[in-house]
Amino acid sequence: MDDWLIAIIKVVGIWVWVLLIAVVMTWVERRGAALIQDRPGPNRAGPWGLFQPLADGIKLFTKEEIIPTKAQKLLYIIGPLLFSVPAFSAYAVVPFGDKIVLGGKEIILQVSDVNIGFLYILAIGSMAVYGVILGGWGSNNKYSILGGLRSTAQMVSYEVPLGLALLGIVFVYGTFSLRDISLAQQGTFLGFLPNWGIFKQPLGFILFIVAAYAEANRVPFDLPEAESEIVSGYHTEYGSMRLGLYLFGEYVNLVTISGIIVALYFGSWHMPYIDLGAYLGPISWGIVSFCIFFLKVSFFLWMFVWVRWTLPRFRYDQVMGLGWRGLIPLALFNIFITALFIQLTV
Amino acid sequence: MNQNPTPQTSHDTGDYVTVNIGPSHPAMHGTLRVIALTDGESLIKVDPEIGYLHRGVEKLGESLTYHQFIPITDRLNYCSAIPNNVSYEMAVEKLMGVEVPEKAQLIRVIMMELARIADHQVCIGILGVDLGAFTPFFYLIIQREEIYEIFEWFNGARLTNTFGRIGGVDADLPDDFEQRWEELKPGVRKANDETEKLLTHNRIWMDRTIGISAFSAEDALNWGFTGPCLRACGVKRDLRIDEPYCMYDKFKFEVPVGKNGDVFDRYIVRMIEMEESIKIIDQAYKRYKEMPADAPLMARVPKVIKPPAGEVYSALESPNGELGFFVKSDGSAKPYRIRIRPPCYMIYQAFPELVEGELIADLVACLSSLNVIAGELDR
Q: Does A189 have pLDDT greater than 80?
């Protein structure tokens, strides 16, 4: 009974938490853009404009839902759902802290410690592409179809380097479970470098982060919704909360991707050089590890904003070229080097 | 004008799909429309459709007096109204045989070069936005606002300046112009520097602009290109030097010339021109300060302007290229005919040739780099 309760609390809790971060993230995006661009940004709703996401949400919810007459009704409706549900589900295997001991019971701060964590993320991540292509197709608009096609080609292509980059991590840590990898990142190697994924897989990290930006449709890979070219891409015909789901799903994706980056490459909840868990009590360590994890996550979330307002956008063929001619050979090379290294040292 | 604005490309032919871009589209500045026949992302055939902003400017001129037409010229290239005003005024002055006082000419030069900076800032900013780089746009627009402040404080309007009068200018530069200009200058330079840092050597930016919609000098001349788009192709043609007006022959400045005539060269040419404009303003203001304070601002022109019967064409180098006015007078108080030669009209004709065979994303980049202004194009 207790296990059930804990599981439900964890599921609902992390769902609300990710939702909350995504909401704040929309605010950070707009204020961050304003900061970079020398302008005030939304500052009227609440202190520092903090209630702006709320106001946007109310607006989206109360708007009339319109289905274009020539749209494919079923596809049009399930498009946003197929996009946003996987975005939330993917977080299930990403940890959000070490563990906490409550009432003599040890609770792992992760919704589910699946031993095939990676494969789950890749599988769920691939689902999102259906949301985009079906939404684009169902809208019956040429811009939407162009956006959907771009997105399909891009997301499918970049899944390959993404998976290959992750393989390097699997080689190094010998497991698919995100929690086990997180645990393995404690301590140092070579005497001074933290045992983090980025130091063991520097090339893999660069490949992963590039591919992740492409998977998240963020600048410089935001072609599927390239505003100046194809209006809004796949969500051109969407309005009210259906549009909201697409926009929101994107931010949830960012949280998930940042979580994965931190868990795999940036030592998860570990501080470098110092094992805080040894000094803190079981409850406070649970809270502190949670905080450390999300501090790191917030840095990567900020990086998404930072990059978005700094770089121009790739062209379609350049994105494909970079993926197939640049990232995939490099990823294969990375795997080869990693395997060779492991073979020689172990 | 074609009554049915859908030429043969409206039918989906075989594997190709017609995509209608504009007139209401984020990248179609103003109200341009392009009917594109596409094969996936590639453009097979491009068919620009103009006239959505046609207001009959030239015809309007026939029912207004010579002075009343000046505010109408504001609405041609609304990114930089002042060169439009001056170009029209110069045409009427030429028709009347009026010599504009030197001081008025210097004020015109200063204001026109400020307008050129503002125009180039908008063009480059929008080019960035269309290629997905939002931030430089804001850096540049903030500085453009500062320039507009100077315009506003000079003659009360920010966008539609209605600058000058036939025969000179109506008002002297205010006393604190020097202070304002010295404050503005570093800001403009800083914004340009930051834009340059963000874009020029950015790998993505270079990939997106170098070699895109490249045009040979010969083609450009044949199509009637002028201004930065022509200079980007490697032709050193600038009316300020080749056919000097407003004492431009007294100033020292460089005319930047590109090589390939692609989007990148157009961008660079505009960036350098802004710096050259700053130099021109400095020189013009130096000369202006040497003038006596009571030097005349207006030539002796009658209150009601009635040029002798005849016709005249007069052009100047507007930020976009050669902006010419043809004015025909029958001796009455209203022009018999006004015809405007906007730079965009000639440049936009070559648009299909520039983008056919490229990708949809390049169409957007090319269009913003040409700086086609619908107000000027459709008139």
A: no
Structure tokens at B187: 């800001």
Contact between A257 and A215 (Cβ < 8 Å)? yes
User: Is the minimum CB–CB distance between A306 and chain B shorter than 8 Å?
Assistant: no
The pairs formed by A205-208 with CB atoms below 8 angstroms and a separation of 24 or more are A205/A165, A205/A261, A205/A265, A207/A161, A207/A162, A207/A164, A207/A165, A207/A327, A207/A330, A207/A331, A207/A334, A208/A162, A208/A165, A208/A166, A208/A261, A208/A264, A208/A265
- In the numeric block, the tokens 């990898």 are attached to A181
Mean predicted confidence (pLDDT) in A172-183: 83
The CA distance from A314 to the nearest CA of chain B, in Å, is 6
Averaged over A285-296, what is the pLDDT? Answer: 84
Task: Express as a percent the part of chain A with pLDDT over 90.
Answer: 2
Q: CA–CA separation, A166 vs A154, rounded Å?
A: 18
B205 Cβ under 8 Å from any chain A Cβ:
yes
Note the Cα A117 to chain centre separation in Å.
14
- Which of A222, A223, A228 should one mutate to test binding to chain B, selecting the residue with the greatest count of B CBs within 10 A? A228
Largest CA distance in chain B: 73
pLDDT given at position B3 = 43
Residue numbers in chain B where pLDDT is lower than 50: 1-12
Cα–Cα dist B32/B367, whole Å: 10
Amino acid at A155: M
B206 touches chain A (CB under 8 A): no
Q: Is the pLDDT of residue A229 over 80?
A: no
Whether A44 contacts chain B with CB within 8 A: no
Window 304-343 of B, Cβ < 8 Å to A: none
Angle between helices A240-265 and A202-215 (to 10 degrees): 180
Phi-psi domain of A109 (left: phi exceeds 0; alpha: psi -120 through 50; beta: other): beta
* A293 pLDDT tier (thresholds 50, 70, 90): confident
Whether the predicted model's global pTM rises above the 0.80 cut: yes
State pLDDT tens for residues B96-128. Answer: 888 888 888 899 999 999 999 999 999 999 998
A227: chain B residues, CB-CB within 8 Å: 26
Burial class (CB in 10 A: 0-12, 13-18, 19+), B170: middle
Q: Chain B residues with CB inside 8 Å of A318's CB?
A: 204, 207-208
Task: Give the model's pLDDT for residue B117.
Answer: 92
Residue of A nearest to B27 (CA): A228
Preceding amide of A220 cis, omega within 30: yes
Distance from the B58 Cα atom to the nearest Cα atom in chain A, whole angstroms = 32
